[in-house]
Amino acid sequence: RGMALGYTLIPPAKDKLHETKTNLLEKISVMMGGRAAEQIIFDEVTTGAANDFDQATNIAKAMVIEYGMSDLGPINYGPTMDVTEWGKSYFEQSSVSQEMMAKIDSEVKKIITSCFDRAVDIIKTKKNLLDKTAEELIKKEGLDGDEFVKIVGKKEKTS
Question: Which of 45, 55, 56, 73 is the most exposed place for a label (fewest CB within 10 A)?
Answer without folding.
Answer: 73
